[in-house]
Write a structure and sequence with these properties.
295 residues
């Protein structure tokens, strides 16, 4: 994995906010340092879990700069810059690289429903504009358009596109593409982290990693050592926490609540249309964290 510029344990960071909805940049920096201290070698800023759909360009650029300032070269910092507007994404890529981003995450363009050829050119243009390694984010449940296998093969021929964040969940096709391309593969769904790692994925881009970074580091180390029983034991222990965070309502909502419970952020405020969960969701979260040994 010496040629992996992204890291292996990567968390898609929340964007801490004050109770009035403004970004808590001090809290963002403290969280970044905490993650770097607890198993992470990569951080993703301005991803879906960071509520990038409702933050402004300037807030996104300032968030990248703040995280880079906080962690220096301790971990690789990836910036989410993908939108459904290619020119906008290219401008964002350049701006985030200027703020110190090491790598870029580019999601499949959503809503427009482009052709697969258009998607390839979208990624090519952003990769060329940013000049940093790109991870392609395949999440058809949010974008409405999946990356076809032929498209992924073509992306693998673009020099700047180095990896795939897979939230599509087709394990067999993922294993085929890992074998056929030089792309680094990352689990984009905490439910499938162990499965992807066992098939040869380079790492994970996680939400639950906010509270389980050291566990996921231990899982990767166990898989690397061929100790699948140990890796499976970690996976099994984390099931209640993964379920409580990812299946109760929505990942950003639940993981912000978890971070506030643990005193790692000052508020679990979100931006509309995301709302804080009701008491019963937080009760399930407490129970799940406790059952997984994360309380």
């Amino acid at each position: 994995m010496s040629d992996n510029p992204f890291g292996r344990v990567i968390t898609a960071m929340v964007t801490p906010m004050h109770d009035d909805g403004s970004i808590d940049f001090d809290g963002l920096q403290r969280l970044a340092v905490h993650l770097a201290d607890h198993g992470h070698d990569g951080l993703l800023v301005n991803g879906t879990t960071g509520e990038s759909a409702t933050t402004t360009d300037d807030e996104d650029y300032d968030a990248v700069a703040a995280v880079v300032e906080a962690v220096g070269d301790r971990v690789s910092v990836m910036a989410g810059c993908g939108t459904n507007d290619t020119e906008h994404s290219m401008r964002a890529a350049r701006a985030m690289v200027e703020r110190g981003a090491d790598t870029l995450l580019v999601v499949t363009p959503y809503y427009n429903k482009p052709t697969q050829h258009g998607i390839v050119e979208h990624f090519r243009m952003i990769a060329e504009a940013g000049g940093r390694p790109v991870m392609a984010y395949d999440i058809p449940g949010r974008t409405g358009t999946a990356l076809s296998s032929d498209t992924i093969r073509r992306l693998g021929e673009i020099p700047g596109v180095r990896a795939v964040k897979d939230a599509k969940g087709d394990l067999f096709e993922a294993s085929r593409l890992m074998a056929e391309t030089d792309l680094l593969w990352f689990s984009g769904d905490d439910v499938l982290n162990l499965a992807f790692l066992a098939l040869g994925a380079a790492g994970i881009v996680s939400v639950v990693g906010h509270v389980a970074g050291e566990d996921y580091r231990a899982m990767i180390d166990a898989v690397d050592a061929g100790d699948l029983p140990r890796a499976r034991g970690i996976h099994t222990r984390l099931i209640p926490a993964v379920d409580a965070i990812m299946h109760t309502s929505q990942g950003a909502i639940q993981v912000k609540a978890a971070l506030k419970m643990q005193g790692l952020i000052g508020s679990d405020q979100l931006r509309m249309p995301l709302l804080q969960g009701p008491p019963e969701h937080k009760d399930k979260l407490r129970e799940g964290l406790a059952a997984s040994g994360l309380a």
